[in-house]
Amino acid sequence: MSEQRKYDFKKQHYAGEEGRLIPLLQRAQETDGYITRERITEIHRDCGIPVAQIYGVATFYAQFRLHPVGKNLIKVCHGTACHVSGANAITEAIEKTLGICNGETTPDKLFTIETVSCLGCCSLAPVIMINNDTHGNLTEKEVKKVLKQHQRAAIGEVQ
Ligand code: FES
Asked: How many Cβ atoms from other residues are within 10 Å of residue 70's Cβ?
């Protein structure tokens, strides 16, 4: 393991404190983009939390990812307002456009589709978020247009 670890998981601060595991995992994901095996090993070693428990928490909460995501993370809201406003059709349009299923990453690692429960802007339903950009009041046609813009930007033709 690297001498210059990004974490300072002091055993005396976290040992036996299961509630502290979530912030540790959040920090690991912020740093690496997802929960890596190395971080799980590091948390286990530094905090004394069993590996099975760490995996249990990481797989229980939808906020944690155990696989890397693409350069552009597409969060498709399936909260109540978005669901009744056509979130399923939006997801299908994205899947069709990118050629992947929800939860997957494109082979070129440019896009990942993820379902979320509410993006906090229900009046704009249906809503998606691509990285930090929010797109609301979407139709299938509009979402395809948004994706094309992000595809062009991702390959350097725009911006
Ligand atoms: S339900 Fe989609 S933003 Fe709230």
From this structure: 20
Ligand 1, atom 1, residue with closest C-alpha: 79
Which pLDDT value is given to residue 114?
92
Which regions of the chain are under pLDDT 70?
A: 1-18, 157-159
Residue 29 CA to ligand 1 centre (angstroms): 23
Indicate if the alpha-carbon torsion angle 74, 80, 86, 89 is positive or negative.
Answer: positive
How many residues does the structure list for the chain? 159
* CA 85 to centroid of ligand 1, rounded, Å: 10
- Type of residue numbered 45: R
Report the chain's terminal Cα–Cα distance, integer Å.
39
Distance CA 15, CA 157 (A): 49
